[in-house]
Amino acid sequence: MLKKRIQNYLPSKERLKASKSLRFLGDRLFANDLWHINRKSIAKAFLVGVFAALIPIPFQMVLAAILALYIQGYLPVSIALVWLTNPVTMPFVFYFTYKVGCLILDVPVHNTGFEISWAWFMEKLSSIWKPLYLGSLVCAIIASIISYFMVNFLWKLHVIRRWKQRKNRPQ
After folding, report:
1. Half-sphere exposure of 46 (CA within 13 A, CB side)
2. How far is 153 from 108, CA to CA, in rounded Å?
3. Helix axes 118-168, 39-53, angle to 10 degrees
4. Pick from 10, 80, 146, 149: most CB atoms within 10 A?
5. Measured on CA atoms in the order 89, 140, 144, 46, is the torsion positive or negative?
6. Residue 65 CB: number of other CB atoms within 10 A?
7. CB under 8 Å to 74, separation ≥6 — which residues?
8. Using an 8 Å Cβ cutoff, are 151 and 46 in contact?
9. Which stretch of DSSP H or E encloses residue 165?
10. What is the reported pTM?
C-alpha cells in the first residue's frame, strides 16, 4: 500500500527517458533497482542518503544520486534522505560532527558565536574544516551503516509479522 502511494508521486521511466537533461546518464539511470521498491534497494538508498546528508558539501543530492547509481539503491529515497540536513537541522548536525572531529583530533572546540553569513563561514573555515570534515565523515559512515542494517532488520521483521498474521487468519 505504501509502495503504491510512493510510486504515484514519482515520474515514470518513460517521462525520464524523454528528458534531454538526463540523457548523459544513459541506460544506467533506468536500471531496475533504482526504481523498484524492495528491501535491498531501500536499504542501499538509506546507506547512500544518510551518508550524503551528513557530508557538508554543496549539492548533496547530486552526491546521493551518483552514489545511488553506483550501488543500485532506490534513487528517489536516496535523494529525499539528503533533506535530513535541512536549513533547520543543519547547524545542530554539523556542530555535532564538528565536536566529534575535535574529539578524534584532540583539538579544542572553538566556541565562537555562530552567524548565518558567508563572510562568517569563510573566516572560520580555516580553523574548523579539519575537525568538521573528519567528524562528518566518521558520523556519516557510522550512521549510514546503522541505517542500512536497521532497514534490513525492520523490513524482515515486518515480513515475518505479515506471515504470522496470514497464518493466524481464519480460512
Report:
1. 20
2. 38
3. 160
4. 80
5. positive
6. 23
7. 33, 34, 35, 36, 37, 41, 42, 44, 45, 68
8. yes
9. helix 118-168
10. 0.79
Length of the chain as a residue count = 171
What the block records as the C-alpha cell of 115 is 552567524
The amino acid at residue 113 is G
User: What nine digits make up the cell of 122?
Assistant: 569563510
Helical ranges in 24-88 per DSSP H: 32-35, 39-53, 60-71, 75-81
Set of cell numbers at residue 52:
550524503
